[in-house]
Amino acid sequence: MAADSNEKQEAPKQEHAGSPDEVALELMKFIAVTTGYGKGPSTTGFAGKTARSSEEYAEALLELFDRCRAAVRKAPQ
Fold this sequence. Notes:
The termini are far apart. Helices cover 48% and strands 0% of the residues. By secondary structure, it is mainly α.
């Protein structure tokens, strides 16, 4: 059955970007998930270095968030 030509098509919804900190947080999450940022190198077998501790990983993520926040604030509005 064909759709009526009188029916309105729904326009795509646009999400509000939110505060600069929210944008920076989303950017940080995207970078961290796609690149494995802060986790350290993944190795198999014997390795000279141990995996990063949870404190080191958290510090790396906080540093990344600061960098993302600075980048968002520099971006033209």
